[in-house]
Write a structure and sequence with these properties.
Blueprint (H helix, E strand, L loop, with lengths): L2 H17 L2 H8 L4 H28 L3 H24 L14 H8 L4 H15 L4
Helix pairs in contact: 3-4, 3-6
C-alpha cells in the first residue's frame, strides 16, 4: 500500500464524520444560506493565500530541481484558484465599476484569518527557522 492510500485509510473515520457535518451537506446540496457561503469563501481565500506561501516555502527549501518545480507549480495553481474565485464574484460588475474593489474583495481584505490559517502560519514560521524535513 502506498503512502497516500495508507494516509487516507488512517483518516477515513475522521473524513467520514466531516462529510456528515450539516455545513458540508448544505454546501454539497447547494442549500447553504448565501451569508454562510460568502463567509466560507472569505475564510477559504485566507486559507488558500497562506497555503500558497507554504507550498512556495517548500519549493525554496527543496534540494531536488524536480521537487522545486513541482511545489512551485502547486503554489501557482493555488494562486490561480484564489484568483478564479475572486473573478467569479466580479463577473456581475460592469467594466467601469471594476476600478473599484467589489464588496466581496473588500470583505476578503477585512477578514481575519480563520483558525485553520494559524496552522499554515506556524508552518511558514518553521520554514524560516529550520530545514525542510
Amino acid at each position: 500500500m502506498n503512502w497516500s492510500d495508507q494516509a487516507w485509510k488512517t483518516i477515513e473515520p475522521v473524513y467520514n464524520r466531516i462529510l456528515q457535518l450539516p455545513f458540508i451537506g448544505e454546501l454539497m446540496a447547494g442549500t447553504l444560506p448565501e451569508e454562510k457561503f460568502l463567509f466560507y469563501l472569505q475564510q477559504d481565500a485566507c486559507y488558500l493565500a497562506e497555503y500558497g506561501k507554504i507550498l512556495a516555502g517548500i519549493a525554496a527549501k527543496a534540494d531536488s530541481t524536480g521537487y522545486k518545480q513541482a511545489f512551485l507549480k502547486f503554489a501557482g495553481d493555488t494562486v490561480s484558484v484564489e484568483q478564479a474565485l475572486h473573478e467569479f464574484y466580479l463577473c456581475n460588475i460592469s467594466d467601469e465599476d471594476r476600478a473599484e474593489p467589489s464588496t466581496f474583495q473588500m470583505k476578503i481584505a477585512q477578514t481575519l484569518p480563520p483558525p485553520a490559517c494559524f496552522t499554515p502560519g506556524i508552518c511558514i514560521a518553521l520554514f524560516r527557522t529550520g530545514p525542510l524535513r
